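Hi F.,

I've been meaning to write this up properly since the lab meeting, where we talked about keeping a consistent format for the predictions we share between groups. The idea is simple: the sequence comes first, exactly as it goes in, then the C-alpha cells exactly as they come out, then a line or two of notes. No screenshots and no reformatting. I'm using this chain as the first example so we have something concrete to point to.
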Amino acid sequence: MIKISVSMPQSYREATPEDLGERIAAAKSKLGKRLLILGHHYQMDEVMDFADARGDSFGLSRIAADRDDAEFVVFCGVHFMAESADILTTDEQCVLLPDLSAGCSMADMADIDQVETAWEQLSQVTDINRVLPITYMNSTAAIKAFVGKHGGVVCTSSNAKAVLQWALGEVNGVSRADKVLFFPDQHLGRNTAVELGYDLDAMSVWDPALELGGLNDASVKESTFLLWKGHCSVHQRFTVEQIAEVRSRFPQSVIVVHPECSHDVVLAADASGSTDAIIKFVEAQEPGSVIGIGTEVHLVKRLADQYPDKTIICLDSDVCPCVTMSRIDAPHLCWILEELVAGRVRNQITVDKDTAHWANVALQRMLEIV
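Output, unedited:
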C-alpha cells in the first residue's frame, strides 16, 4: 500500500542544481545515521552523488535490511523496489520513495487479478500442483505474495538460472514441478531456459488478455515454460541491427547486454548478464577496449566516465533512459530529506502484514536456493 502524500512544492523545481546539492548535503548531515539513501544503478548522477549505497533492486533491499540502525530508508528507485525494502526491513524502519509516480511498466504488466485468473484457468487443463509460479524481482508485493503462497520463488536476473534449476529439479528422486509459470518478463524466462539447454518449443507465451493465455489445452500441457507476455520498455529497444552497426564501426568491439533483451539480441551479443554482471564485464576488459552495452543509458554513461581508458557506448544511439526511474531527481530527493528534518514523513511505502509475510516467504526461498 502507498500512503498518499502532498505534492512537492514548485519551489524545489525552481531551485538551481547547486542550491539543491547544498541543501541535500545539509539535510543528510542533520539526519546523520538515522538516514540511509539507496541508489539504483539506473539513477541519474544528481541523485547517485548522494547515495550511501549503490546496487540492483534486491541488493539494495538487503543492504537496507542489514542497516537496522537506519530509521529512514530513502529508496531512489521505483515502487516495487521500495516495497521489497519495506518487506525486508524491521517494523521500526520507514521506507520512503521520493516520487510516488516512479513505477515500473514491467511490474505493471502482471497484476494480481490477472495472475489469479491465469492460475484458475491453468487448473482447469493441467495438474496445478505440478506447476510452480516464479516471479522476477520486478513485480509487485502482491505478486510476490501469490508466489509465496503457492510454493514458488522470486528470482533476479543474476540468479534466475539457479532458481529455474531448483524449480524443475528433483526432491527425493521426484521432480519438484513439471512446468513453470514465469512472470512478468518473458525474455528473462526464455533466455534463462535456453541457457539451461531447453529448446524454444518447450516454451509458450501466456497473454493475460486472452482466454487461457491465447493457448490451447495441448500447448499448456506440452510446455515446460509458460512465459508471461511482459517486457522491459528499455531493454526491448535493443536490436540485432544495433549490434551489427557497432561491430561495423568498431570491428574489435565486444557486446554485452541484459537478459531482459529479446532472445535474438542475446544470441548476437558476446555476453549477457544482470546489471552487476555487466559492470563486472566492463571492469574485466583491457584498456583500449570498445564495449557496446545494451542496458539503461545512465548506467552506460556512468561506466564510460568511470573507465575513460575504454570506449563504452550504448547500443541505442537514440538514448534509452528508464523514464519512470528518472522521476527520482534532485528536487524530489531534497524535498523528502528536508521534510524529514522538519519531522514530516512523506511518501512512505508500506506493505500490509499478510502480503509482506507471503512475499517474504518467496524471497527467503530464493535466498535458500542461492
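Notes:
The chain has a mean pLDDT of 92.
The domain at 107-232 is CATH 3.40.50.10800 (Rossmann fold).

If this format works for you, I'll send the rest the same way.

G.
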